[in-house]
Amino acid sequence: MLLHLFPFSESFYQPASLPDPNSPPLQNLNLCTVSGWGVTWMYSQSLSPELRSVEVELFTSCWNYYPFRITNNMICAGSRSGGRDSCQGDSGGPLVCNGKFEGIVSWGIGCAISYYPGVYTKVRNYIGWMNQIGSKGQ
């Protein structure tokens, strides 16, 4: 199964800002972008030699796909029809929604399998902690 990934060009490089933890929650099926150097299909052994990205849809009802494994500190994104997802080697990479760094690639079942979206750490839940740690370094 080949993922639909596209190489970055220099015109795509721009920083993503951190989300406001008090902003309205993300909506179901919002389009987001995940990027990384991971494999481009599930059974590949070779990481991508270049940074790649793919648009994915946000799934706000993550627990419907992974009962008993999801916490409030996680969000899911992928494609209902499959074919678009993060994969092995992308862990730790960003999930950007509307220019905001909303998620960190964490885990999933396989790659790009329909109705098994990728699971991401929900960054907005850690903003207070990040600010606290950042202020200690000043």
UniProtKB/TrEMBL annotation:
Q: Name one GO biological process term.
A: proteolysis
Q: Which SMART domains match?
A: Tryp_SPc
What sequence ranges are listed for the domain Peptidase S1? 1-135
Please name the SUPFAM superfamilies in this protein's record: Trypsin-like serine proteases
Write out the coiled-coil annotation as residue ranges.
none
The answer, when asked if Hydrolase is one of the entry's keywords, is: yes
Q: Which InterPro entries match?
A: Peptidase_S1_PA (IPR009003), Peptidase_S1_PA_chymotrypsin (IPR043504), Serine_Proteases_S1 (IPR050127), Trypsin_dom (IPR001254), TRYPSIN_SER (IPR033116)
Report a single Gene Ontology molecular function: serine-type endopeptidase activity
Mention any Pfam family matching this sequence. Trypsin
Q: What is its EC class?
A: hydrolase
GO CC, sorted alphabetically, is: extracellular space
Q: Which UniProt keywords apply?
A: Hydrolase, Protease, Serine protease
Where exactly are the transmembrane stretches of this chain?
A: none
Localisation per UniProt entry: Secreted, Extracellular space
UniProt name for this protein: trypsin
